[in-house]
Amino acid sequence: MTTLCFIATVTAFAALPLLSVSASGDSGDLFLKMAAEGNQAEIALGQLALQQAESAEVKQFGATMIQDHQKANQEVQQLASKEGVQLPRQMNEKQKVRQAQLAQLSGKAFDLAYMQYMMKDHRNEVKQFQETAQQLHNPAVKTWAVNTLPILQHHLELVSNIAPKLGPMTLFSEESTASQ
């Protein structure tokens, strides 16, 4: 029962809205900062998946997150440097809480919670990058968002294929977490 409550808490965090990017005069600074924090979180959680996961597919997904988000993080850092944007050097507090919560799990419980979080997180990221690609005025940041979007969509496809193999995810749907 404790594991189910914990998983519900983790998935509730994933349902929180991402930083909204305003089209009115936004140079992309906030988006770059959000992307840097997101990359750092994906890398840290991918490393956790390598250590805590039971499923070989979840471990492989974690390795993919590390590889792809390290590359994306390097790109964000280069772009931010050119744009004169100071990026955060670590995850934000909510991401640190998620990492700490997932670190308490292992095996199948970790697999379910991690993949549920990755599903919600990548849905949010894809939506955020799509909106950014349409709204931002800074051409360099906009181009990076457009070029990164297919990678995030691929991550969402991967997690959508892996998650059902782990067991029923209906226990962890948004409806069940919304009431908690």
Structure description:
The protein is globular and about 45 Å long. α2 packs antiparallel against α3 and α3 runs antiparallel to α6. With 180 residues, the chain is mainly α. The protein contains seven helices and no strands. It has one domain (27-178): Ferritin. The chain has helices at 2-14, 29-52, 56-83, 93-103, 107-135, 139-166, 174-178.
| SSE string | HHHHHHH
Relevant CATH superfamily: Ferritin, core subunit, four-helix bundle
Helix share of residues? over 70%
Distance between the termini: 14 Å
Short synopsis of the structure:
With 180 residues, the chain is mainly α. Helices cover 77% and strands 0% of the residues. It has a single domain (27-178), classed as Ferritin, core subunit, four-helix bundle (Ferritin).
Features:
single chain, 180 residues, Ferritin, globular, disordered N terminus, disordered C terminus
Topology summary:
Elements (H helix, E strand, L loop, with lengths): L1 H13 L14 H24 L3 H28 L9 H11 L3 H29 L3 H28 L7 H5 L2
